[in-house]
Write the structure tokens for this entry.
Amino acid sequence: MFFNFILIALFERLAQNLQSFLENAPGLVVVMFFFIAWCGCWLPVATLLAVALKWQPSKPLKPEQKLPLLVSLYLLAPLILWAAIWLTNTPLSNYGFLANISILSSLAVGFSLGILSLVVVFAWQFWLGWCRFEESNIKQLPSILLPILLIALFVSGIEELVFRGFLFSELEQNYSVGIAAVVSSLIFAALHLVWEQRETIPQLPGLWLMGMVLVLARLSDRGNLGIAWGLHAGWVWAIACLDTAQLINYSDRVSEWVTGKNKKPLAGLAGIACLLLTAVILWLYDRHHLK
């Protein structure tokens, strides 16, 4: 009993000291604390899951192996972020998350914009004959639309809260908006290498640009994450549905660096065009709101 009392007292003292340190620490230090804590808590879980899933490091992750690892990582993120918020005494609203009805309307705007940008880019590719639509596979859509939508909302919500919310806001405390956007987007792109290296490396420029566009989405939404969350979810949902149902079949009329290497839009000029189109629409949306 006495031993337990000592442990509790030591833990409380340690928490108080850590809280005092982080409240006055630069944003970069808080960011480092968050990612170290996140990885440190996830690695034991990931190790157990990897053993249970019989994953071999020499082989790429299969979708059924990747999903449990991804979900476990992302379920931990809100807990670690809550600890960081408590230790730094920072309200969640500082990271762009507002628990009110307005975030839902912004979410819908962003989601619609994400779908619209992909429709425009793919319609352009269909017209040029770079790819064709496999109508025979449409029958697969009803069974996958809702599950993929829920996963897309969950994954994109966590990523926006961490990268465009927490990470960008903490970096912005000590650096300009431009530097905070560039660095947070670089970290966002680089961390995708955790899952797959061969297919991710060609996508790194596109992933970085995607991060920059999502920062612009947050800024155009007056610092809130609603549009960025919806935009990210719309892209993930649409691309995942197209891939899962195998609705798109690419021709050999142009290089895969145009349509997307390894059939990944972000690894091609078409995906870059989609991001730039979205950036222009967000810029016009921001100018309209400023009037």
Notes: The mean pLDDT is 86.
